[in-house]
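2.7 Reproducibility. Because tokenized structures are sensitive to small changes in the input, we list the exact sequence used for Aggregation factor core, including any N-terminal residues retained from the expression construct. No trimming or masking was applied before prediction.
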Amino acid sequence: MFKALLPAAVSVFLFAGASAHANIEVSFIESAPKDRFVISNTGQCELKDVILNLDLSNSSGGLIFDTTSTGAGVDVFQPFEVRKGTMELLSSGKVEDGDSMLSLSIESIQANDSVSFTIDVDDTLPQSELGNIRVSGSEITNASAEIIVQGNTPSVGMFKSDGKALMLISPC
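Resulting structure tokens (single pass, no recycling of outputs):
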């Protein structure tokens, strides 16, 4: 009889010990004329009071934000624009042309949902795979994304050649 109860007891113990988690995936999507960043909550918990810091300065392509017709960017330019969700720039009211970093305050991201924004990103390489106005996945490699949820310890993810960075968040 003990043998018959053991599997049930083990699964109750394992279920009771499991806690809900929240992970964030930041995806860069090259598109013309506006590039897009999608911040996805791939976990099971709503996240509130989120800060996202994007740093392109270590990217393989020397990426920059191209937000005006004059300055460091090439040809096509697009300013920062929220597409989905409630978020605002922390550093100032706008991203300056040629910046490689930005910081956002995101009100909340529901479980299995996302928020997004558009902006133009250019590379600064003398010779690049798609030209300076378009960014390949390999050019965003080594850029970083940092997530801070409700003032907790930051979690940092590095962009891979698929244009995605993953941050693991503490259980909620």
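The CA atoms of residues 63 and 123 lie 4 Å apart.
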